[in-house]
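Data card: per-record layout.
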Amino acid sequence: MKTSRQEIQNYFESIFGARPEIKHWAKSKGLPFYLLDEYAFHTVTLFGREILVLLAHEPFENAAKIRKHIDILKKTVDHPILYATGALKSFERKRLIESGVEFVVPGNQLFAPQLGLDLREFYRSRPPEKSVMSPASQALLIAAIIRGWDERYVFRGVDLAGLDQYSKMTTSRAMKEFQSFGLIEPAVNEKSPRWRFVASAKTIWDKALPALQSPVKRAVFSDWPPLIQRAAGLSALSKSSLLEEPPIPVIAFTKEEWDLELRRSGRIEVGQFDHALFEVEIWSYSPDHIRGETCVSVSSESVDPLSLFLSLRDSADDRVQISLDEMMEKIEW
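The structure for this 333-residue chain is written out next.
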């Protein structure tokens, strides 16, 4: 089970009460290929202290091998090195500790003696609230963030939906989810409840990130040009960064939209290597869900940048992570 640098950032903030800075490690370009195949390399800066984090591409296998890799890196790195993965069994944790490997499992464990920290473990019961946001609620939240608001903004659930995209029941559930995640609070106690966001759009985005998921449910391929060609995935990222266009263009549809396209064209999906012309991402909400004026720039030819970020944030490709950083840094919240 892999982890992501966003999960690491959120976990460090929950422990230390300060949000660390996390960046791709520029010096990783000169590392041997066998190390690049094993890890993504990032630096975390917390309270002026720099840490090199090795995000494992694959689940834990061998503590001795990880120890050997860290020893190689220590020849050129002075600061502490943390091994990062999404899950560890108790015997795996024991082997890492016995091998002197410092590690982090976001949301669960941190072992970092070089930082003056003891092992912290959290055995949690099933949370009473949902740990992830539903697709409809996520789409409503992202649309609101992209439109932006000021400190006086007060709204009803239906105000976020716009143009009857969602039913009153769906927006009502979304408000309950937003409130359970601490994103909104009651503004006026009337028959029709009104709400306000508890912070700025950027802060709400950062706070909601652990509960947000990739909108991509699956990917299929077509050997014909679909009627709608809304850029997604690496195609959309290449339009807002220096990343090269992928060899097969990536576009996005909902399941309903794609079913209509299949009926319209009279065609069937093909395999990736069957002369595919397009990779089609099937999304859990409409890739074209943004309506009205926006504060965050959104291209009419591509999916919105926040959903795009969520769809690619767990990529193990360093080039993708650098391009995502580049795209997010351009956003004017």
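Known properties of this structure: Confidence is low (pLDDT under 50) at residues 117-128. The first helix runs from residue 5 to 16.

See the next section for split statistics.
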